[in-house]
């Protein structure tokens, strides 16, 4: 990694060993910034307060070797990332204003992409994880994670049934608790549907009645106009001297017929005049029929207006003004469907009740399968942690799990009991510790001293590391509160773990640092204006001096130097 303008670090390069790397330095030197830098590369939260005072932005760049064919590499390449000489380049920039940018393999990507990759690349274990593992929910999650598919498969089935049960119960509660409101809604729908049924509107009827009302309201004017038009076209029998259009057109036609044979053009005009005469006769006949058939009955007009008023009232209540009877009929169709739904509540209640009871029975079976899988995994997990504690200078300590259930009258039936259930099953899981023979197992938060708790948590994390599919593990001062022989055993155990994975440890313990394949010193100096921090790879005499400082606070103490050299010799012998 290259770290620039982050906290007390001005510009530093951190190159980690493929095996065991120990990061050491005095308190406040910036060791935490190394961990923070890795966290930023893994998609951690960008805090503008991390930006070095006076700098515009903090930048962390990382070069990570990712094995071919791994899910992380495939996902990165799908995002457009390219490899640089077989390595994946990651960078994260945090501005002083709080803006954050991420790049992966030369491509700009959302920060969330880094978070996705982090789960498959690095497992981080720190003091905050220790506190988190004191919570029962985290202990159950830890056990489930250790168990793998043996718990994951039945848990997936259980959670699907649990979600369905929650949905069914919620719907059932809604129907029951809203019974009054639903009954009132049904009454209103019935009233509206009865009112519409009494009128029996037809689609488009309002448009037809509007046209008929317009015609009936002007019947006399329409009849008079039709008669006048008929007289103009066909003449008035009572006025033989009158001139009408049919007579005039007939005279024009006769005049042309006499000479049409002499000119085709004139013959064509004569034909057209003949067509006009026929059309005039037809129109005149239809006008005569229209006038005879026109209904001027005021009773019919009153009936039409009454019907229109009834339809208008329905439209105001159940439709839109621009939709007319079509809107009323649409409301009636929707209302009928809704009424069927409301009237079917009793049947629905029976169906939901039966489904709820069936799901509770199914949950009971799945919960028992979960309990069985957890019980089997708990035995293996506890044995593995107990063995790790023997390697951490707690040879007589025993770790176990208490898997129990809580009674709940509204729960699920299991073994003749009605027990509480939740999204993860019916089990409460608690990690217990018996620190020495004869001591009763107690919850780790109550049964372990500070040093013992650190070793228990480290043992748990090492067991996790053995089951995690990630290639790199970061331990951030999880050895706090430990010293002496136990510290040596912790260093030895981490060195053993580093034979199969990359291990990075931030530590204050020389007993742990001595076992590292590479020791990085984070130190800061003061040039009078700006405090800078650098990261140095320690070798030979420099490493002895740093271990002496960590042992006695004195780099040049002969006793401390001898002890430091002895620690290094012990670590080399174990290797």
TrEMBL record:
GO-annotated molecular function: ATP binding
CDD domains hit by this protein: ABC_RecN
Biological process (GO), any one: DNA repair
InterPro entries for the chain: DNA_recomb/repair_RecN, P-loop_NTPase, RecF/RecN/SMC_N
GO cellular component: bacterial nucleoid
Record key words, sorted: ATP-binding, DNA damage, DNA repair, Nucleotide-binding
Pfam family, one: SMC_N
Superkingdom of origin: Bacteria
Keyword Nucleotide-binding: yes
Ranges where the RecF/RecN/SMC N-terminal domain occurs: 12-529
Protein family according to the UniProt entry: Belongs to the RecN family.
Task of the protein: May be involved in recombinational repair of damaged DNA.
Family annotation (PANTHER family): DNA REPAIR PROTEIN RECN
Protein name as catalogued: DNA repair protein RecN
Source organism: Streptomyces sp. NBC_00119
Gene encoding the protein: recN
């Amino acid at each position: 990694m290259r770290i620039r303008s982050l906290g007390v670090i001005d510009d530093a390069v951190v190159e980690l060993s493929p095996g065991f790397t120990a990061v050491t330095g005095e308190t406040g030197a910036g060791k935490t910034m190394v961990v923070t830098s890795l966290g930023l590369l893994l998609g951690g939260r960008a805090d503008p307060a991390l930006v070095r005072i006076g700098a515009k932005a903090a930048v962390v760049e990382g070069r990570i070797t990712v094995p071919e064919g791994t899910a992380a590499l495939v996902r990165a390449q799908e995002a457009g990332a390219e490899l640089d000489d077989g390595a994946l380049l990651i960078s994260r920039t945090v501005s002083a204003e709080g803006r954050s940018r991420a790049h992966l393999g030369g491509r700009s990507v959302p920060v969330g992409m880094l978070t996705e990759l982090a789960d498959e690349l690095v497992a981080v274990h720190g003091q905050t994880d220790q506190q988190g593992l004191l919570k029962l929910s985290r202990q159950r999650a830890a056990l489930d994670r250790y168990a793998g598919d043996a718990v994951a498969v039945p848990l997936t089935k259980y959670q699907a049934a649990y979600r369905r049960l929650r949905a069914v119960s919620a719907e059932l509660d809604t129907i029951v608790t809203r019974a009054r409101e639903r009954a009132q809604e049904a009454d209103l729908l019935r009233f509206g549907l009865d009112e519409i049924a009494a009128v029996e509107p037809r689609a488009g009827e309002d448009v037809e009645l509007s046209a008929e009302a317009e015609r009936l309201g002007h019947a006399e004017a329409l009849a008079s106009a039709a008669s006048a038009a008929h007289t103009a076209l066909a003449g008035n029998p009572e006025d033989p001297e009158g001139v009408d259009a049919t007579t005039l057109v007939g005279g024009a036609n006769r005049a042309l017929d006499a000479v049409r044979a002499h000119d085709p053009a004139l013959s064509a005009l004569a034909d057209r005049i003949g067509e006009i005469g026929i059309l005039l006769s037809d129109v005149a006949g239809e006008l005569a029929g229209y006038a005879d058939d026109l209904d001027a009955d005021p009773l019919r007009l009153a009936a039409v207006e009454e019907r229109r008023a009834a339809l208008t009232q329905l439209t105001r209540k159940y439709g839109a003004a621009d939709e007319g009877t079509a809107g009323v009929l649409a409301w009636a169709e929707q209302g009928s469907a809704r009424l069927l739904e409301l009237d079917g509540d009793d049947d629905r209640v029976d169906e939901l009740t039966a489904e709820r009871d069936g799901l509770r029975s199914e949950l009971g079976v799945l919960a028992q399968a979960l309990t069985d899988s957890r019980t089997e995994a708990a035995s293996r997990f506890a044995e593995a942690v107990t063995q790790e504690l023997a390697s951490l200078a707690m040879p007589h300590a025993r770790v176990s799990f208490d898997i129990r259930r809580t009674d709940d009258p509204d729960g699920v039936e299991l073994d003749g009991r009605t027990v509480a259930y939740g999204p993860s099953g019916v089990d409460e899981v608690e990690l217990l510790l018996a620190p020495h023979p004869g001591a009763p197992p107690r919850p780790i938060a109550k049964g372990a001293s500070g040093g013992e708790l650190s070793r228990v948590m480290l043992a748990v994390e090492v067991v996790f590391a053995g089951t995690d599919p990630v290639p790199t593990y970061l331990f951030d001062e999880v050895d706090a509160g430990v010293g002496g022989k136990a510290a040596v055993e912790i260093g030895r155990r981490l060195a053993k773990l580093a034979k199969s994975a990359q291990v990075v440890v931030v530590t204050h313990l020389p007993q742990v640092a001595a076992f590292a394949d590479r020791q990085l010193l984070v130190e800061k100096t003061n040039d009078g204006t700006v405090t800078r921090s650098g990261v140095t790879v320690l070798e030979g005499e420099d490493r002895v001096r740093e271990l002496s400082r960590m042992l006695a606070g004195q780099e040049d103490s002969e006793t401390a130097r001898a002890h430091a050299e002895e620690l290094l010799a012990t670590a080399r012998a174990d290797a």
